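Help! Submission page says 'invalid entity' but I think these are all valid:
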Amino acid sequence: MQKTKRLLAIETIISEEKISTQEELLRKLKGKGISCTQATLSRNLRQLGVGRIPNGIGGYKYSLPEKIRSSEKSPLRLNIVPVIQDIVEANGLMVIKTIPGNASNTAFFIDGTARYEIAGTIAGDDTILVIPRDGVTIQQVHTCLEIILPGIHEQIKKK
Amino acid sequence: MQKTKRLLAIETIISEEKISTQEELLRKLKGKGISCTQATLSRNLRQLGVGRIPNGIGGYKYSLPEKIRSSEKSPLRLNIVPVIQDIVEANGLMVIKTIPGNASNTAFFIDGTARYEIAGTIAGDDTILVIPRDGVTIQQVHTCLEIILPGIHEQIKKK
DNA sequence: AAAATAAATGCATAAATATGCAAAAAACAA
DNA sequence: TTGTTTTTTGCATATTTATGCATTTATTTT
């Protein structure tokens, strides 16, 4: 299905650049090989909870819902990054290893971001199973992680 | 000038009810004896930073900018309400009395809400001078306070 | 006060966004 | 698979929102 991929791309584009009209977003999507009509985009934006707000300089920009945006400056985030030890894949699922006792916090944080691509998480003591939404690839989940926890992959490589 | 009153009314209406189109807001304003065209409203909403976001049930609603909204659930707010001792008026200005040592915190909170009707504040140890924006009445500042610190007047009466 | 400048507003309309409806695609059931 | 139901999508268009321009209203300057 085309829709899932499109929703992911929309979230990513909006979180990375200032988009001010649906037509503009449409072009960006086309640049990524995803095409649809403005009508579909309008419906998708509503489904994702994306709002249109004044940008302070006389224009407008599309903006992810607060629960997602706020995760980017959450003080929790700063605590999360250092406890992640490794990220591996298994069977279309993603497994995140943390230092002992921290899986639950971390999973809670991930859930809180409410990213479309993550259907849910299950946490033990030091291991989190991240279940991607149907049709979402591991690569896409990696991209998503990098958005909600900037620098995370970089940080793991060093270990 | 009509504009100031209109901006205040817009903030108040939007913070109190779910408004989904500018035409609807226009009617509410008319109900309060304030009338203008949709064009003016569009410009005002942009100036106030008011965004339009999906309401989760298939429609849209206008929403105050985050800095204003967030003051409503700020943990700070809960600490602020109990320290306010009295609110009196003098000379078109408003004077807020707090318990000793708390004027500065409280003024900081009020500033943070960035309400249009308040031009600024000056705080001593237990006294805050609230300076209304030009054209704003004390009554309007009271209404504003009630919005950013719900229950505040009620609470003072009891003292 | 009168003139000059800036700000606010309405009107008409352009631009942008949402939606009813029918077609296509996908998911599901027998 | 084949038929049935649900979801997604595009098209055309209605609805909603933004804006250029002329006018009025307010503010500042001389």
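Support: the input was valid. A stray whitespace character was the problem, and the output above is from the cleaned input. The longest strand of chain A covers residues 84-90.
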